[in-house]
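Notes continue from the previous slide.

Worked example: a multi-chain complex. Inputs as given:
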Amino acid sequence: MKVIINNKEIEVEAGTANLAALLRAQGFTGVGQAVAVNNRVVPKADWEACGLEDGMKITVIRAVCGG
Amino acid sequence: MERYIRQTMLPEVGKEGQRRLALGSALIVGVGGLGSPVALYLAASGIGRMGLADIDVVSESNLQRQVLYGEPQLGLPKVDCARERLAALASPSCALITHPGGLTAENACDIISGYDVVLDCTDNFSARLMIDEACFRLGKPWVHASIDGFYGQVTVFNHRAGKRYRDLYPDADALADMPRRTIGTVGPTPGVAGSLQAAEAMKLIMGIGLPLDGRLLAFDILNMDFNIVEF
């Protein structure tokens, strides 16, 4: 199964159960980050319950502070 | 009015939109990289009253992106330099108010209560949390932008009791506690974000179009990628 994270297509390793596991495997800590699936933000509390689908578009938005 | 004809000729703006702008007010918190384009475009648009809050003085490393200032202003308070520059391009009827003490937890509600919309052009998480809290209490919309490198994001918070900064970033308090670091960027990054902020503020004041409320626009000008997510 392939998903797109921040415009990069990646192959999801077998056994990656959900969005939370995928983000962990990809090195995203979740701190100061919001995550959208198909352009809709999924609250952090729902990452475990969010299943993965082929072609899913995942966008990790990081809070930045420059002005 | 000839001065504003290129915007009043648009059916979305018209005479009524221009009248609303003239009656409208905006507070710009931070007149740096974001605040420069925001202030220039709002001043030129015919807005009635504009507040400038910042405690900084102009330094040499500001000049590559903070296009309100030049070398003659080095060492001078930003709000004073900005007011002078903006007064030269705004209509004489535009009131320019400076808040040289900046926005603090003590004065935030007092200052913000005098304006229709707040533009977050700050450079740290603590200031954003302060604006979030004060605007929530006062029921005022605020237009957020932040940048880092070639990356930027823009959204509208607390519009008609809509989403807050804390809704998008629930762990914002932890971010505010992190040590500050110097952020690199190129001028067009805050230029793009600030221009979009000015557009959102004008739309909010005129009551036209679809504001970025509940939607975050994130962009990367290195790869020219623009994307909107709903939250």
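Summary box: Helices of chain A lie at 19-25. Residues 2-62 of chain A form a domain with the Ubiquitin-like (UB roll) fold (CATH 3.10.20.30).
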